[in-house]
Write a structure and sequence with these properties.
The structure is a single chain. This protein has ten helices and eight strands. With 240 residues, it is of the alpha/beta class. α2 packs parallel to α3 and α9 runs antiparallel to α10.
Length: 240
């Protein structure tokens, strides 16, 4: 992650679209127990941790991200009023594919695509407790004929439709319990603050930062233009 990108993204509450309702929905699908052991894989600055704790108030959340500055932000109460020194949370910088369970739920918002569905699910299988589940969101086309603009939004990532996502889950010997699209409100929870940050950084921005700001603006515009065609699909799955 280059310095200009992190200047834009540092202290943003979210590093991807999401809302507490996503976690609540997934927890309801699996019947998550109050004392559940949860992993927030690729947690970013920890925006989903409060909702995960609310879903399992007597449980524990282990938050993992490869970018240490995000891990440092997890505990900054004065920025996010989030978890502080809550003993129910452990956070460390590390590889999301090398977890040490067991976990009753592995939550991964918008990051499985770095590894691929089959590889990620296969790596997480030994980390799940008996009956454990995975909830992950993945880029998805919502139409059989996405426009070039919708394809360009994912910057070359081989985005699939729901049928192909389900096939990849099955290839990893998991079953799909339920799916739902990440809402427009969840996307705006990410892009609204980013747009405000871009505006605040424009004046006096050097060449590298200006390029990062332009890239961020293009991303926001691309989603808002093509959101009927594409977005994230949230899937709840378990090993068979």
């Amino acid at each position: 992650m280059n310095d200009a990108f992190f200047t834009l993204h540092s202290k943003l509450e979210r590093e991807g679209p999401g809302e507490p309702a996503d976690v609540e929905w997934a927890a309801g699908i699996v019947g998550l127990k109050p004392n559940a052991r949860i992993c927030d894989a690729a947690c970013g600055p920890g925006a989903d941790i409060p909702a995960l704790l609310a879903a399992a108030p007597d449980g524990h959340v282990t938050a993992v991200d490869s970018h240490k500055p995000f891990i440092d932000e997890v505990f900054i109460d004065e920025v996010f009023m989030r978890v502080g020194n809550d003993p129910r949370v452990t956070a460390y910088a590390g590889d999301m594919l090398k977890l040490k369970g067991p976990f009753d739920l592995i939550w991964c918002a918008g990051a499985v695509y770095f590894a691929g569905i089959r590889k990620a699910l296969s790596a997480w299988r030994p980390c799940l407790s008996p009956g454990g589940t995975v909830a992950f969101s993945e880029p998805c086309f919502f139409t059989d004929k996405p426009t070039d603009g919708a394809r360009a939004f994912w910057d070359g990532y081989p985005t699939q439709d729901e049928t192909a996502i389900r096939a990849a889950v099955a290839a990893a010997d998991y079953e799909v319990l339920a799916t739902r699209r990440i809402s427009d409100a969840a996307w705006e929870a990410y892009y609204g603050p980013m747009a405000a940050r871009i505006a605040s950084l424009r004046e006096g921005a050097g060449e590298a930062l200006a390029a990062a700001l332009d890239e961020g603006e293009n991303e926001i515009e691309g989603y808002r233009r093509h959101k009927a065609e594409t977005g994230y699909l949230l899937s709840v799955v378990r090993p068979v």
